[in-house]
User: What shape does this take?
Amino acid sequence: MSLAEFEEIKYDHSCERLDKPSRYLVRKARRDPDSGLQQLRKSMKSCTVYVGNLSFYTSEEQIYELFSKCGTIKKIIMGLDRFKFTPCGFCFILFDKMEEALNSIKYLSDTKLDDRHITIDLDPGFEEGRQFGRGKNGGQVSDEMKFEFDASRGGFYTPLENRIGTNANFGARRLKNVPVQQEEEYEDEQEQEEEEDAYIPGQ
Amino acid sequence: MILADYEEESGYREARPHFSKRQRLPPVVMLCKDMMPDIRTMGESAKAFPEDIKFLSEAIVHEFGNEEYFNNALLKTFRAVVLEQPHKQPGIALLTMVLNSAKPEIGKSVLNYFFDQVQALLNSSHDSEYETKSHDTGPWDKIKLILRFISILSPMVIPDDLIELYRRLLQFAIDINNSTEKRSPLSEAIYTNTLLNIPYLFYFNSDNRASLKTLVEDVLIFVENDYKIKDSDIELLKAYNKNSPYEPVHWVTAVLPNVKDALANEMQQLSSVFLNYDSLLTQQTTIHSFNEPLNLPTLEQILPFSGLDKGFGSVDSLWKTPRYSFEVYLPNSVGPFATVIPTTTYTGMLFQDILLDIIESMEFNRLEVARQLVTIDLFFAPGIFTEPGLPVAQLLEQFEENHSGTTFKIEDLAVGAILQLTFKLPTVSQSFAYFYSLLVEICKNSPKAIAPVFGRAFRFFYNNLDKLDFELKARFLDWFSIQMGNFNFSWKWNEWETDSVQWCRTTYNPRVIFIKNLIRKELRLTSNSADVEESVTDEFQKYMDPSFIKREDLIHYYSSLFKNFQLDEDDLRNNELYFRSPSFPFYESVINILDFFHKQPDTRSIAELENILKDVADVHGSIIEDFNRFTVTLLIQAIVFCGSRSLSHANKYIDDSREELKAILAQIEVSPEVKDQWICEAVIRYWNKNSQNGYLILDSLRYNGLVSSGAVLNFSLTEQYGVNMSLVDSTSIESIFRILNELAIATDKNVEPFEYVFNRLVGAANDVVSQLNTSDAIVVPDLDQEVQATDEELPLLDLAWKYESIMGFLKSILRKYSDEFSVLTEKTITNVSQGVTHEPTKQQLNRWILEAAEL
Assistant: This one.
């Protein structure tokens, strides 16, 4: 499948645009040959954005206070722990217009909310069920893969015995090498691998 | 295992050559991918610049003309830099001319390409199908930028051809200007844009200079004689309601003298502004002319578009209303000198123009904008600005030692330019989030250098709050709170203590209102209120309580629902439904009501609810003052309580029970206005500690048809316990603007609510005037002049501030909704002449109403 329209090198601007699909989205689209391109096109035209790296304690009202500076907010859908029904650090924001959604990506990504740098990404549109964390413990996967203490995102996420294992494999260094199972549909994991995302003319 | 660990930590993998899984790019694409970024960043390093020119030109000479892909990429890159980063134009022009020396056809191609661009832009300027994007600055602004670029290319263009462009554009501006008695925005734009470019003809010293000089002199004489500048004093658009702290410079009036000054004295000013690239310029052996003359639109074609009010791009739209300078860093505020280059000089005006273009045309990448703005000095002659980040204290010291050194700060200029756009009246060109986050970004890059610059701006606006336009006060509040939210809420609160001590007993003092609203907004931006609490000094702890009305008034509100019943004040708690506290006589019935709302909508019937209410009426009716009012209050607060966990919970409960509530409300036999009033009260009193939530829930009730927009406006505009919340509480003010904005963009437009708000405010002004009992103009002392007031004088002073607030609000809505008010002109004038007896108020309002009709 060709994602040419998203990968073409363009010379229209003198610097990069901040409202392009993230590398995560492009890779996700590439892995899905049936509807990947449609999903990507849909994200560019949708009124919905995904907001990540929120503190668990950030309320809808705080999100409203900040994001309403970009446009009219129709709805905020908080991401919830699917077992506890408590906020687990992400949300979807539905704006009134597509431009407002793009504006929020251009203007607010990586600004601070509740003392955390929030991430904002395009989104093809909200569907029921996506408001729940997909980690094994109900929250976001990214929290299950972190090792450092993060007070505003539930401290240490995994219980100690889960982190070091029960079969006497002591030491965090070893654990680093245990392959972490990565599932395709995880919303929140950031892709690490570098890859040339470039358009080849005429192909 | 250990080895694997070692590998990861040493970064060994990164050092290994990276083989892409996919096919490698064709050589020409690879070349462009590497070369174009170099062109975009040319000049950012002064040291590398000569080499850049050398290597780039060699490569381009070699490659140009071989592949269409390369030619396109190069020309498009040139175009992007010329339009988005105008400070880099001289570099691009130099590169073009070096190419022209080596291979004249490249020079010709570049020139033709840009000339065609101008023609295309001219054609689009009167295209009713024109599609604009947020980074589009508008056809006329882009024509300005390309004309500037072509002007810098003067050593390789025939002088007569160049001057002909100027002559034609200026004649066009004159013709448009003469076609109307009124001010013509487009003609002002073309006139100013074109004149501002003239000095660029002399950027490089070449053989053409002498002939250009004579030709330019002729053009200036012709334009001075033929262009009539029209008066444009519109009070509605002024940033300050009275005693403006500075005299704004009218761009159209200032541009010609500025340009003439710049060209006078052998162009001395220019050599101290423009970076001298003459040594890098190669001999231009081939001089080009344009292939064909410029085809300007006819007057018939352009006049329908000459108002620049069709939203054809951000910078062009700035011209819709007369352009005046907006200043924040005033001369003599730090020491006996200016830190920003005055707009009354060519240099000052040019910097304003360039900064504005950068901010507007690259809005899609605020990080890059932030970087370019504070390093723009690299692209101009050294010595214009002080060293970057120099603290004002040191600047003052330097100045005292040496009066001849420069005092202009690049940071002041950059921040001032962003603020100019943030505080632009009547509308802003981008959404506020852009400007606020751009300011945050600039500060993030070099907090030490920028934070004090912001501090000076904060102080400036704060000191002038009593004069600042009503709407601008709200923008200032937003900016300040977002800035604080990004920087741990740290502010030198002790600076404002004396104001708080002196004026905390008043209701309408502009500074106290600001402080209160600022703290409330900060509290709304954080989930940890301790962050805010710890940031303020003891004096301000009293503002940490964000109550909408005072506690005694809240008690009074709940008491008024009952008779022969004493409520327990301790049961009135934050975010809690009073009626379900165990001491309340029929709290069990209330819990049944809550249970009812918690049920799935399809498993409940309205009869259950009616039975509960009937039981309550039968058994406890005797302690209830007005059962209708109580029913409305109870049901609404019950819904609000059910949804109190978050806004989406509230929305869900309101959505689920909409029909039931409507049915029960319909049974209550009182006028809809009264019912609506009860609903608004019930919601806002429940959320007394967080009125923003209250207002957002009222929005949801409005969308669900449970309360009218008019009712919410009425609620905000009605005095509550002696305070007009629409003048003091930012959540109230924002709600009013939110409702009016919605109505203004609605398809079935109804102007009644606008008239309603206007009349209510006029009524409030009348009340204040009658309390002040005067027929003279109401004069309030300037707050920065050490005002003192005795206890007897204080209430009068407070009333005077109230009057100013009301008038400020009126000015803002007349301006903001001028389209709506322009159809109401006659009606509002009649209302004012009949309803207002206070002559100065009447005159003021009449003037604004007439101005609004012209906007």
Notes: Chain B touches chain A through 62 residues (CB under 8 Å). Residues 1-17 of chain B have pLDDT under 50 and may be disordered.
